[in-house]
Design brief:
Blueprint (H helix, E strand, L loop, with lengths): L1 E13 L15 E7 L4 E8 L7 E4 L5 E6 L11 E7 L5 E8 L5 E6 L5 E6 L7 E6 L15 E2 L20 E2 L5 E6 L4 E8 L4 E4 L5 E3 L6 E6 L5 E6 L4 E7 L5 E8 L10 E7 L5 E7 L3 E7 L6 E8 L5 E6 L5 E6 L4 E7 L6 E9 L3 E13 L5 H11 L1
Antiparallel strand pairs: 1-2, 1-29, 2-3, 4-5, 5-6, 6-7, 8-9, 9-10, 10-11, 12-13, 13-14, 14-15, 14-16, 17-18, 18-19, 19-20, 21-22, 22-23, 23-24, 25-26, 26-27, 27-28
Organism: Cymbomonas tetramitiformis
InterPro entries: Cycloisomerase_2, Haem_d1_sf, Lactonase_7-beta_prop, WD40/YVTN_repeat-like_dom_sf
Protein name: 6-phosphogluconolactonase
Length: 395
Amino acid sequence: MSVVYDDFFVFVGTYTTPQGHCPTARGEGILVYELDISTGRLLEVSKNTQIVNPSFVKISADARHLYAVSEIEEYDGEKMGCVSSYEVGEDGDLKFLNRVPATGGTSCFLDIDDDKTCLLVANYGAQGTNSVAAIPISEEGSLKQPDRVTGVLQFEGSGPNKARQESSHPHSAVFSHSGNFVYVPDLGTDKVHQLQLNSKTCALKRSVTTPFVQLAPGSGPRHLTFHPFLPFAYCINELDSTIQCFRIGKDQELSPTRTYSALPKEYAGTSTCADIHIHPNGQFLYGSNRGHDSIALFMIDAESGELSWVDYFLSGGKTPRNFAIDPTGTILLVANQDSDDICTFFIDRYTGHLTKSLWEVKLSAPVSLQIVHKPILADCRFTSSGFWRFLSRLG
């Protein structure tokens, strides 16, 4: 069996119950759309309502499996969230596989290594439930039980913002390009923790040489992304609305360089940053501002990796918590949490500028987006009707 591609799926995670930061949430779970990148149109094709608060979803590199956290207070009698696994059908249907504990509370982020052997979970939590876990993935795509001794790490510390930094709060956890190094932006301690991963056992340990990189006090690191082909990384800081640039060393450790504001100089209101992504061509970096309700655009210098401010573009709604760029770099989708919509923007490949399309989707509390090529499973044992259907989908 082989996999070919036709168009795109968009997977959307929503809050299904009211939250303190999203009091009107009434989402329907995980919704699946087809995306036409020529028009920006989104068409709902499937939904899975049998999950509570899937506030972050992550698709595997082969688009065959989807994983989702449930941001809940208790799972199986313990104060923690959980993670669900699904098989993605040809038409976007999600077949539930299994569910395992996240080993921490307020689960908020997932990442998968390219070989689909380990799933990282960031648990924002409170003191005692804040952690990062590495969960083994079976050959069939389901999740194995996490090893709570070797596969889970907790962090100590706090920051100057007493309301948000009373303890460590891992807000994401991402694999390095090689897959054997893990970076954890910790909003509560203003650190990016650097971990080593055994991909065969999913065991985590702190880097021996540099266990963390310290950022500015009160910055609140949230999400981190990598340049697609240069040795640079970028962390968006929630609390002070900045972006920290890093150079990646030969041992995969981060060295901070310069910091840039994600807000225009003339803005004096309240705002916090949320998400960050780089265009597939490596020239443009985007970050979302909640409060200013915008997407900031920067140019990336190809030699130094440093940023230069270009402009900002209104998100089309309120509280752009998450956004995503399609693999071709044509479309940028924004999930506006508090205006209950997803807005579609065209990306100018030469300038990076965004132009809002005529299409948007209304749905309650969208907070996580994944855009992937739509897989078509091609089996040599086609019936004649199946063969012609397969050819028609190839165009």
